């Protein structure tokens, strides 16, 4: 295979892997990488192996682009699905991402759980509610023995349960979304890793002394 | 008494730590490299290598540039070059300039704060390495 053909194959693989963006964005990236290869390897594409190795596999390069853009989109988005996807992708890159992902899962599960309870109240009015007893304070749907047969445990909200759950659920979804957007924005540049670097005194000793 | 790590494990974790450190400061380094004017990708790589000894894999820089551009910290423009093909030049936006300044301030404050903490460690480490190199020269 000629050098030109290898470059074209690499770029075609990159193009295929760059999903989740517009054609214009994709072509812009491919063109920039093509220019880089040309500059690095020279017109004769003499050092093509070294140049392509420096860029890494096309799939991995595309993955780096996609991760960056997804987190970026999620910061602006209010779609829980997009934010969860970005958090999951971020979780694969390190501890801070994992923490963000766990917050996302917990917050959204809580929100969806309350909304579900609001929907279930009309279907199971006797079993769904806010149950209060000596050791209980539960927003839940009770199974087994019908509530009310235990005098100590009683439901307090009645039909108010629906708006209360709907409000708590919505607030949980909104608060989780806002918190995640804030964390994504904050972590993007106030990266703890960057702060850890400062602790090394790298600024004054120079990078070379770290090697 | 603390047990010392096996040399291979210690060296491996040091390398990982160093790689993470370098990765963590990339955004600041890229923004700082554009402080004096517009550059294209390969020039940014060379500037980082020359001025900060921050050697990146070539595949790392472009996704970072792309993300910084979508964040509004950089703007990019294709410019016809003497090389015979166009190059994509990046420059700081006002927001990017402000961000770079704030990052530089944070860096300096943090470094100054912890500098005194690591100073004795650094002195001892230098003394030890000096002693070791003298011993080796005698042998």
How would you describe this protein?
- The complex is a heterodimer of chains A (211) and B (139).
- Chain A is mainly alpha-helical and 211 residues long.
- Chain A folds into two domains: 76 residues, no CATH class; 114 residues.
- Helix content of chain A is 66%, strand content 7%.
- Chain A has nine helices and three strands, in the order ααααααβββααα.
- A three-stranded antiparallel sheet of chain A has the order 2-1-3.
- The radius of gyration of chain A is 27 Å and the shape is rod-shaped.
- With 139 residues, chain B is mainly alpha-helical.
- In chain B, a hairpin with a 5-residue loop joins strand 2 and strand 3.
- Chain B has a single domain, classed as Orthogonal Bundle (Arc Repressor Mutant, subunit A).
- Helices cover 69% and strands 12% of the residues of chain B.
- Chain B contains five helices and three strands.
- The longest helix of chain B has 45 residues.
- In chain B, helix 3 packs across helix 4.
- Chain B has a three-stranded antiparallel sheet.
- The interface between A and B is large, with 46 and 44 residues.
Shape label of chain B: elongated
CATH class of chain B: Mainly Alpha
Order of helix and strand elements from N to C terminus of chain A:
HHHHHHEEEHHH
Average predicted confidence as pLDDT of chain B: 81
For the CA atoms, what is the radius of gyration of chain B? 20 Å
Runs of chain B in which pLDDT lies below 50 for 5 or more consecutive residues are 1-5
Name the biggest interface: A-B, 46 and 44 residues
Provide the structure class of chain B.
mainly alpha
**What is the H/E order of chain B?**
HHEHHEEH
Q: Can you count the beta strands of chain A?
A: 3
CATH architecture descriptor text of chain B: Orthogonal Bundle
End-to-end CA span of chain A: 39 Å
């Amino acid at each position: 295979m000629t050098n030109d053909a290898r470059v074209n194959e690499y770029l075609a693989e990159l193009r295929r892997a760059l999903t989740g963006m517009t054609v214009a964005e994709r072509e812009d990236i491919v063109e920039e990488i093509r220019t880089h290869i040309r500059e690095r390897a020279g017109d004769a594409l003499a050092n093509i192996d070294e140049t392509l190795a420096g860029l890494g596999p096309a799939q991995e390069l595309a993955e780096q682009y996609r991760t960056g853009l997804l987190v970026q989109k999620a910061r602006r988005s209010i779609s829980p699905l997009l934010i969860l996807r970005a958090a999951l992708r971020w979780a694969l890159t390190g501890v801070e991402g994992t923490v963000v992902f766990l917050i996302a899962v917990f917050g959204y599960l809580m929100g969806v759980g309350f909304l579900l309870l609001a929907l279930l109240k009309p279907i199971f009015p006797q079993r769904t509610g806010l149950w209060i007893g000596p050791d209980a304070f539960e927003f839940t749907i009770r199974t087994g023995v019908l509530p009310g047969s235990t005098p100590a445990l009683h439901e307090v909200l009645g039909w108010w349960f629906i708006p209360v759950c709907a409000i708590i659920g919505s607030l949980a979804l909104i608060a989780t979304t806002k918190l995640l957007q804030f964390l994504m924005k904050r972590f993007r540049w106030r990266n703890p890793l960057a702060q850890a670097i400062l602790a090394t005194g790298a600024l004054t000793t120079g990078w070379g002394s770290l090697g | 008494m603390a047990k010392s790590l096996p040399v291979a494990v210690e060296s491996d974790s040091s390398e990982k730590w160093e790689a993470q450190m370098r990765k963590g400061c990339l955004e600041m380094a890229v923004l700082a490299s554009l402080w004096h004017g517009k550059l294209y990708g390969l020039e940014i790589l060379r500037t980082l290598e020359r001025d900060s000894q921050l050697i990146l894999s070539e595949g790392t820089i472009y996704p970072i540039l792309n993300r910084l551009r979508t964040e509004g910290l950089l703007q990019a423009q294709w410019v016809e070059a003497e090389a015979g093909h166009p190059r994509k030049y990046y420059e700081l936006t006002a927001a990017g300039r402000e961000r770079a300044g704030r990052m530089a301030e944070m860096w300096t404050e943090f470094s100054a704060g912890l500098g005194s903490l690591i100073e004795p460690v650094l002195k001892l480490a230098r003394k030890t390495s000096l002693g070791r190199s003298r011993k080796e020269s005698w042998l």
